[in-house]
Amino acid sequence: MQELRPLALCAALTLGFGSLVLAGPANAEAPQTRPAQQTDSSQDEVQQEVLDAISGFAASTGTEPMAGGVSSGEGVVILVDKAEKTDEVIKYADAVADGQVEGVRQVAFAEKAQAFAATDVVGGAGYIAEDGGMIYSCSVGFSAWSSSGAPALISAGHCTHDGALTTTALSKPSTEPAVGGPGYESNGTGVLGEFAFSQHGGPGNSNGAENDPSSTDISVINVTNPGVSIYPAVTDWSGAPSDNLAASTLPVRSVANPVSGAVAMSGRTTGFRQGKTLTTLQDVQGNPTQVEVLDGYWKIDGRWVHGFLSNAESNPGDSGGAVIQGDKAVGIVSGGPASGEYTWSTRLKDALPYTGGYEIALDIAKPAVTAPANNGHVQPGTAITGTAPANAASVTYTVNGGAAQTAPVSGGTFSVAAPTDRGNYSYTFAATNGHSRSQTVSHALVVDMAMPTIAAVDTDKSQITLSGTGIPTAEVTVTVDGEVVGTATVGAGGDWTLDVELEIGEHAVSATQEFQGETSPAGTSVATVRPVSPAITSLTDGDSFAAEKAPSAISGTGIDGATVNVSVTGITRAATTYTAVVTNGKWTVELGGALQAANYAVSATQTVNAVASREAAVRFVVLGADYLPAPLPNGGATDPNALATTGSQLPLGVATIAMLLVAGGAAALVARRRAANRA
């Protein structure tokens, strides 16, 4: 859908186009000497006040403000980018609001200002090319990158006239048909770039074939003008009257296949327009009928093009323009009827592979570092973590201005390891996807001397050995519950130990190490000293009782004042817990009556200073007329490694459960026997 005019009708246009490459500011006035501006001392004081406020803000928050100034009121107003609303910035703003920052009246937030120029190129902009006495106009689809990361633009393949057109220039938005102008006027920025690839139809610009994915309509312009900047966005044409198409745009954040629903297009003839993929055409009787084609083939100027249908209007000169759905780039305008009844667009995602490695430029938001805090202190090798936008594949970062490194993004997060050498470090982070990248964010941190490690301790002995690792020859100072308990020297192998005596309880242990006059942060751990297990004295593991002699209480010994918890579990009863307090070294729990015939497992712990001992455990059986176990080994003597068995008259399920219950006490029995009571 390319528009052309005879060159004879646009003579001025011819001169203008040719002068883009060659002409300079020939009509500029000669420079004149300008007297120095005079200022009074009060103005100088105000300027210094603003400068002091801005530097104070930056020092306190680690963030550069967008602007600072004064108004009719007293005090400086500081303007900050919305994207820089960090915890430090919020804390500073709150302090200003509370009147705690001298000289600063207000902190306000706004979107970052951008300077727009005629050399800022976005999707939907118009461009012109000349060949053989004719000027042709088309529209830019999307900003792009070559395989090497050079700037490029995507448009329609038929815009090159099968390669006859080579050089392009940007047209002037305020004169385009989209805003009621005649078009074809250069914007005066010189050559935009050269066509590097084009295909209309099949390979080699052949007619292609229906149902052949290689039949497409796409071209690439390599941007050769170093003064041109490309942006990952599509213009809505509201900035055309002021020749600033980049002033109002929609971001492009991904490339996708078209889906059913709303679409929007942007081009130099029709401007920005919206429509739907559901299009009203006619049936065989000439009646309106709804049609939707999201993946199909249409002949455009006699050549097949793989694309999709929509009802958004387009006209000659819109060819190559952007087709988007939300923030997704889905197509480029290929063709349509003069009536504007429908538009056929190339499926962008399917067409890109034929360009030889070009990719669409994406708008990627900045990443955010979540830990540690800016200017925070960390240990060597600590993970620096952050979040990245959904369309970022990786994060590129630098450390102290060094070579760029890359960290993958997974699930919207990234992580890099802090340096292992202590010192101050400045990082920059940018979210990336291919050759597209976000703006950078800065983050500073301090790597401290490595703290010593301390192994956790869990024992029922009062005499314990604390141990850990550190820097060889460093002196380690150990603190327990806030009090220094001793020092140790790290050995050549990096290990240290310290013997201490601790009461029963859970103790907070920390340690610092001093090396070459510098002291590290404290490493922390926990040392748990448990009471020994209580003894169960009224039962012996493997006991059996006749029903009339079944126990109705369980007793034992323990540490005076300890709380003893006794759990009794039987085949026909759920675990029941009983509690007693040790008095004069003894404890007893009443079971509320004699136990019924069954196998039983008993476990007991005692708690001192909120720390429980390990379990003591025994097993026994209460016999009954319907519950007769097999004889115990060794003529009835208790064998701690043997399992009591049930009579064959028991159901298999009950017998199996009984065996499991009996087996459950074996390991606990060892625990009970290895520790003595402690007074």
TrEMBL record:
Keywords: Hydrolase, Membrane, Protease, Signal, Transmembrane, Transmembrane helix
One BP annotation, GO: proteolysis
Matches recorded under PROSITE patterns: TRYPSIN_HIS (PS00134)
SUPFAM superfamilies (alphabetical): Trypsin-like serine proteases
Span of the signal peptide: 1-28
Transmembrane segments: 650-671
GO MF annotations in UniProt: serine-type endopeptidase activity
Family annotation (Pfam families): Trypsin
Domain Peptidase S1: 215-340
InterPro entries: Ig-like_fold, Peptidase_S1_PA, Peptidase_S1_PA_chymotrypsin, Trypsin_dom, TRYPSIN_HIS
Keyword Membrane recorded: yes
Keyword Membrane: yes
UniProt protein name: Trypsin-like serine protease
